[in-house]
Design brief:
about 350 residues; alpha/beta; seven-stranded mixed beta sheet; 15 strands; about 25% helix; globular
Length: about 350
C-alpha cells in the first residue's frame, strides 16, 4: 500500500472480529441471536491504545444484563484479558496485559478508561485467564458475598448452589479457609466429585436426588446459618425453610429464571423470613470496587498457598463464543468458562 508520507510508523489497518447481538434473547439464546462481524479499526489517536484479546469470559450475568444494558446491533457485553499491542498512552505501554470490559471482540481501540492492568507480580506459572475467574470478578464476588454480605464466621454452616461454577467453587473454598462446614449442590455427578476434591463437606447432584428437601436435611440436619444463592426459583423456595433462625442469605444470582419467558411464581418466602427472622441481601461485586486491589492480592495468596484451586473450562476459538455462552448457561462448564483466542 503506497503512502506518500513514507511514514516510518506506518501500520496496516487492524480488523477486529466482533460478535453482535442481532436480536434480544427470547427464552434460551439461539445461534440466530448472534452475528460475527468484521470491523476496521482506526489508528489509535493520542491517548489511545490498541488491544488484542487473549482470553474472553462468558458469564451468567450477560443473559439478564443484555436486556437491561444493550440495544440490538450492539457488540455483546463482556470482559477480556488483552495485550496492549500499540500505544499512544504512557499509562498503558506496549506489551502490558490488562483486564477490560471491551465486549466480545478480538481487537479494541480505546482511551484506557476502565482498563485495569494485571497485577505487576502476577506469577509466570499462573495463566492470566484466571484474571477473569478466581483471581477476578467471580472470585471477588465470592469473597465479598462471604465477608461483606454474610459475615460468615468460623464454625457456621454454609449452603451454596451452582457450587461447581465460577463463583460457587470459590465460595466453598473460602468458606473452608474460614473454618466452616460447606454443603454444595451441583448438576452432575462429575461436578459433585469436583466439589469433594475441593474439600466440600457435603455435596449432592440436585438433578438425581429424589427430594431436594431431604437432600438438604440430610447434608445438615441442624439447618444452615448462611446461604449463598446463585440459582433462585424452586431451589430457593425449598432451601429457605432449612435456614436456622437469624440465618443470612446473599443473593448473587438467579440462573434458573434468566431464560424464562413467563415469570415463575411462588411459593413466596415472606412468612418463612418473618418466623425465622432471616436477612436476605442482593449484591454485586462493584459495590466494593475500592477494595479490589487488596482483595485480588488475597485471592492470589490463597492460590499460591494451595488453598484455592482454580478449575477452568476452556473453549478454543473466538468463533465459538456463542456456543460457549450457551453451554455455560446449560451448565456444561466445571469451574470458569473461558474462551482462548
Amino acid at each position: 500500500m503506497e503512502n506518500s508520507n513514507c511514514c516510518p510508523k506506518q501500520r496496516t489497518m487492524v480488523q477486529a472480529k466482533t460478535w453482535i447481538l442481532t436480536k434480544h434473547f427470547d427464552g434460551f439464546p439461539k445461534d440466530s441471536n448472534f452475528e460475527l462481524r468484521l470491523e476496521q479499526l482506526p489508528e489509535p489517536k493520542d491517548g489511545e491504545v490498541l488491544l488484542e484479546a487473549l482470553f474472553l469470559s462468558v458469564d451468567p450475568y450477560m443473559r439478564p444484563f443484555s436486556r437491561a444494558r444493550m440495544k440490538e446491533g450492539d457488540v455483546m457485553i463482556g470482559t477480556q484479558v488483552a495485550k496492549v499491542i500499540q500505544s499512544n498512552n504512557p499509562a498503558f505501554p506496549v506489551g502490558i496485559h490488562v483486564v477490560g470490559r471491551c465486549g466480545w471482540r478480538t481487537h479494541t481501540v480505546c482511551d484506557g478508561t476502565g482498563l485495569t492492568p494485571i497485577m505487576p507480580d502476577w506469577p509466570q506459572d499462573v495463566s492470566m485467564s484466571l484474571a477473569l475467574g478466581a483471581i477476578g470478578m467471580p472470585g471477588l464476588t465470592a469473597l465479598y458475598g462471604i465477608e461483606e454480605v454474610l459475615g460468615l464466621q468460623a464454625g457456621e454452616t454454609l449452603l451454596v448452589n451452582a457450587a461447581a461454577g465460577a463463583v460457587g467453587s470459590v465460595v466453598g473454598q473460602i468458606a473452608k479457609i474460614k473454618g466452616c462446614k460447606v454443603v454444595g449442590s451441583a448438576g452432575s455427578d462429575a461436578k459433585v466429585a469436583f466439589l469433594k476434591e475441593l474439600g466440600f463437606d457435603e455435596a449432592f447432584n440436585y438433578k438425581s436426588v429424589g427430594s431436594l428437601e431431604e437432600a438438604l436435611k440430610k447434608a445438615s440436619p441442624q439447618g444452615y446459618d448462611c446461604y449463598f444463592e446463585n440459582v433462585g426459583g424452586t431451589f430457593s423456595s425449598v432451601a429457605l425453610p432449612q435456614m436456622k433462625d437469624f440465618g443470612r442469605i446473599a443473593v448473587c444470582g438467579s440462573i434458573s429464571v434468566y431464560n424464562d419467558t413467563v415469570p415463575q411464581t411462588g411459593p413466596y418466602p415472606h412468612l418463612t423470613m418473618i418466623f425465622k427472622q432471616l436477612k436476605m441481601e442482593g449484591f454485586m461485586q462493584s459495590r466494593w470496587e475500592h477494595k479490589h486491589p487488596e482483595s485480588l492480592k488475597r485471592l492470589m495468596a490463597w492460590k499460591k498457598e494451595g488453598k484455592l484451586q482454580c478449575r477452568e473450562h476452556v473453549t478454543d476459538g473466538f468463533e465459538n463464543m456463542p456456543a460457549a455462552f450457551m453451554g455455560m448457561l446449560q451448565g456444561e462448564n466445571v469451574g470458569k468458562a473461558i474462551i482462548r483466542v
